[in-house]
Specification:
Layout: E1 2-6, H1 13-29, E2 35-41, H2 46-54, E3 61-63, H3 70-73, E4 81-82, H4 87-97, E5 102-105, E6 111-115, H5 117-125, E7 146-147, H6 152-161, E8 166-170, E9 176-181, E10 191-196, E11 213-218, E12 232-235, H7 241-251, H8 258-272, H9 282-295, H10 299-307, H11 312-315, H12 318-324, E13 326-331, E14 334-342, H13 346-367, E15 371-378, E16 383-390, H14 392-395, E17 401-402, E18 408-411, H15 416-428
Parallel strand pairs: 1-2, 1-10, 2-3, 4-5, 7-8, 10-11, 11-12, 14-15
Antiparallel strand pairs: 5-6, 8-9, 13-14, 15-16, 16-18, 17-18
The protein binds manganese (II) ion.
Length: 429
């Protein structure tokens, strides 16, 4: 059993750092059995790489999804029989395995068939020579062959209908890797999830919906589904999830290492824009002050370092920049996406505005969205500008002034969650 700690899709610094620090805390407190691994839902952002580099911490692993695959359920302890093995030895192996059939491996590791007693009956009746290689004996081939990378979700139904209980598992080249037993489908999934910095399944890593969630640590609105078992749920209206994780270290009587304190500070200053964002609370400042002492570096210098990492607009294509921090919402019968990009040089944004607008139009069509908005935030001056495509019935209602460039000016607006989203929701209403 393995537990993944994971932030939202299109991860930001707070999401990645809170996953990293909470995984470490849960490893220390030892209340979870098995391996605990922090992962990142998709590509690790540049800023996150910078933080891990600066604080000599192993970067969390980027993972596209957490779907359970055939290889995760495969029983690796069951033997694979080599085709050159004398039949009599192969039968002994079969008997000692306690299984009714085992896969046979031929030349180049290829799967050649399943060895099962029923298939061999004719040999016994004919009193055939049992020293022949198992590869020359009758094997059965009717079994459903599974690819190691198949999603269990996709093959489960057909496998359960199949009369066989043993399925050979092969790689893309047809080489045999092992056996999946039908009874594995009835067992609990091999992964569990801890969510940080989000709680809405649609915002989480794909595959999440099929796994048990054992803990949530978050500072967003709650739109969480009912659970089967009790879970740990830590939520508060603070400026960053890393503030909550730091508080949990304190409550557990644990001290983050010097480097982990730096990782947590990075998450706090990234989400609160060094305490300038209106989402900032006294708890964010207090936890950061404690972490600064442990880390030996100031929050301001860490924020400065983070801000120096190339902005998405300068270093990525329009599509990638829009995807780097975008969240999907369903509200009042409308489906929409709100993306946010930090850019301290607005001239870079104006240069890319047309390209961004046409990419947004393409996404409206491709994803059937009612509208999409991009909030470009200048953390240094504390302002944002909004690019809005789609539903004019909504954009007309927004309380912002239009600029000559066709964008909306948002002086003093820094938070998508606390400032933009409520305006969007009331515009829809
Ligand atoms: Mn956050």
């Amino acid at each position: 059993m393995k537990t993944y700690v994971c932030g939202h899709r299109n991860p930001d610094t707070d999401s990645v750092m809170s996953a990293c620090a909470l995984a470490e805390l849960r490893r220390r407190t030892g209340e979870i059995e098995g391996e605990i691994e922090a992962i990142c839902a998709g590509r690790l952002p540049e800023k996150a790489s910078w933080v891990f580099d600066r604080f000599s911490t192993r970067p969390v692993r980027a993972k596209l999804d957490v779907y359970v695959r055939v290889k995760d359920l495969m029983d690796a302890s069951l033997p694979i029989i080599d085709a050159s093995t004398p039949l009599v030895d192969a039968l002994r192996l079969l008997e000692s395995s306690g299984e009714s059939s085992l896969p046979v491996r031929g030349e180049g590791g290829r799967f050649v068939g399943m060895l099962s007693p029923a298939k061999l009956l004719s040999l016994f009746i004919a009193k055939a020579d049992l020293t022949i290689p198992v590869g020359d004996a009758p094997l059965h081939h009717c079994s459903q062959t599974l690819l190691a990378t198949d999603r269990v979700h996709d093959i489960r139904k057909a496998a359960l209908r199949n009369s066989h209980n043993h399925f050979p598992v092969v790689d893309d080249e047809g080489r045999i890797l092992g056996t999946l037993l039908k009874r594995a489908f009835a067992e609990e999934p091999p992964f569990r999830m801890i969510l940080v910095d989000h709680n809405e399944t649609e915002q989480g890593i794909p595959g999440l919906e099929e796994l048990p969630i054992v803990e949530v640590v978050d500072h967003h609105r709650i739109a969480f589904a009912a659970t089967r078992d009790p879970i740990k749920y830590t939520a508060d209206t603070v400026g960053s999830t890393c503030t909550l994780v730091a508080r949990m270290y304190r409550a557990a009587g644990e001290r983050p290492t010097k480097d982990m304190a730096g990782v947590l500070i990075a998450g706090i200053v990234a989400d609160t824009l060094l305490f300038q964002s209106p989402t900032t609370t006294a708890a964010d400042r207090a936890m950061c002050a404690w972490l600064e002492k442990l880390c030996g570096e100031s929050a301001a210098s860490i924020f400065e370092g983070l801000s120096s990492v190339a902005s998405p607009l300068a270093s990525m294509s329009a599509a990638e920049a829009l995807a780097s921090d975008s969240k999907a919402y369903f509200e009042g019968g409308m489906k929409f996406v709100l993306a946010q990009i930090e850019e301290s040089n607005m001239a870079v944004f104006y240069r890319h505005a047309d390209e961004l607008a046409s990419e947004m139009d393409a996404r409206l069509a491709a994803e059937g969205l009612d509208f999409m908005a991009l909030m470009v935030t200048d953390p240094v001056r504390g302002n944002s500008e909004l690019l809005f495509r789609g539903a004019e019935s909504v954009s007309r209602q927004l309380p912002y002034r239009r600029s000559g460039r066709g964008t909306w000016l948002m002086p003093g607006v820094l938070s998508r969650k606390k400032q933009l989203l409520p305006e969007i929701i009331s515009a829809i209403a």
